[in-house]
Structures are given as C-alpha cells and as structure tokens.
Amino acid sequence: MEVRGPEDVRRLIAAHNAMEARIAGLLDEKDVMLGAIGHDLKTPLAALRVRIEGVEDERERAKMAASIEDLARSLDDILSLARVGRAEAPPEKAELSSLLASIVEEFEDMGEAVTFSGAPRIQADIHLTWLKRAIRNLIDNALRYAGSAHVSLTAQEGMAILRVEDSGPGISDNALATITEPFKRGEQSRNRQTGGAGLGLTLARAIAEQHGGRLVLTNRDSGGLRAEIRIPGR
User: Fold this and answer.
1) Where are the domains of the chain?
2) d(Cα 109, Cα 210) in Å, to the nearest integer?
3) How far is CA 81 from CA 13, 40, 59, 64, 94, in A?
4) Rounded-to-integer distance, Cα 205 and Cα 182, Å
5) Considering the entire predicted model, what is its pTM?
6) Span 92-232: which CATH code?
7) CB of 224 within 8 A of CB of 146?
8) Rounded distance, CA 73 to CA 199, Å?
9) 62-71, 105-114, 127-136, 201-210: which range is least confident on average?
10) What does the pLDDT average to over 180-190?
11) Are 133 and 207 in contact (CB under 8 A)?
C-alpha cells in the first residue's frame, strides 16, 4: 500500500505494510518448515515399506503395509491442509462437467464403483489441482464407508454444486456440525476400523472456502451421506 496522506495516516499505512510483510515472511517460513517436516517423516515411512517385506506372515505384512499407507495419506493431508489458500498461480476457467467426468474415469479405471450422471455445461474459475483433490477426497470418503459413490453436477442461483453421494451409514446429526474439524469422524456410524485420520473432509472444506464457496454435508433420506462442494459457477 502506497504511503501517502497526512502524517498520522502515513504512519498507519507504514505500520500496516510492515505487518503485512511480517505475516508473509512467517507464512513463507511455515511452508519451508512443513516441507522439511514432510521430508523427514516420509523418509522413515519409505524405510518401513522396505523392512516389512521381510515379514513372513502374509496377513501381518498386509496389515502393516495398510497402516503405513494410512500414515502416508494422513501426512499428505496435513501438509496440504497447511498449504491450501497459498496457491501462487491464479485460478483458471474450467468446464466442471468434463472435470468431474475425468475424475470419475480415474476411479473406474481402478475398478472402483463410481458413477457420474450427465450434467449441464457449467464453468467456474478454479485452482484445478486443489479442486480435483477435494473431489477425490469426497469420493474416497464414500468408497471407504459405502463401497460406491455417485457424482453429479447441478447449478443453483449462481452456484455450481459438485455432489458426491453414497449409500453408507451416514453421519449422526450431532456429528454433522463438527465432522469437518481436523481429526474428527462420525464414530457413531462410521467406525475407526476403516482407518484414516479424519482429514479428508477438513481439506475438502478448506478447498471449497478457498474458491469462495462451502462444503455442505447432509444425510440422505434413503440412507447414506450427501457431500456438496458449492462454488460460484455459471
């Protein structure tokens, strides 16, 4: 901000600029620190992957491998959550129906039960990598608890609604208000045996807010969870 005007105004602007510079510096330091932490933690995880190959019991080896992958995903989610909103590149215009279709196709290629219903042509200004991450997290969440997911796209009052639905156990009404907080899960109906640190929905919410929107979670009347990312679109 340009420093000009009466003396007291100039002092205020100068103080604001100094504070802004300090905040930017702290955020940069945080990113460097997170990168170092991520590297330090991923290295022993990689070593563990190698070491478990020496475990003779196939069942135990599979359980250990699953735990390691769970830790790796949780670490990735933590680092992503800390960085969301710090995107350097400006948003780009994208056609959301094509975007969703391509994500669903990725899951279909892996043999997952994910479907997509035809959608109107809706465009939005998005951070492509981040929004893809949010949708994948919602689909992963549905697959984890229900084994299948249905993806759709609609528009309402200037908002694009990217919807992922499942037929799993849903989330208790009491838990709906807090389920997107870090490390929270709907333990009443979606139990801990499915693994995960409970960060997928938290990250999806942060990404939706990064795009000027929000994440809306509701239980379906027919059973299961409906997760919607609502962002400006036309």
Assistant:
1) 7-83, 92-232
2) 29
3) 32, 18, 33, 26, 23
4) 11
5) 0.69
6) 3.30.565.10
7) yes
8) 9
9) 62-71
10) 54
11) yes
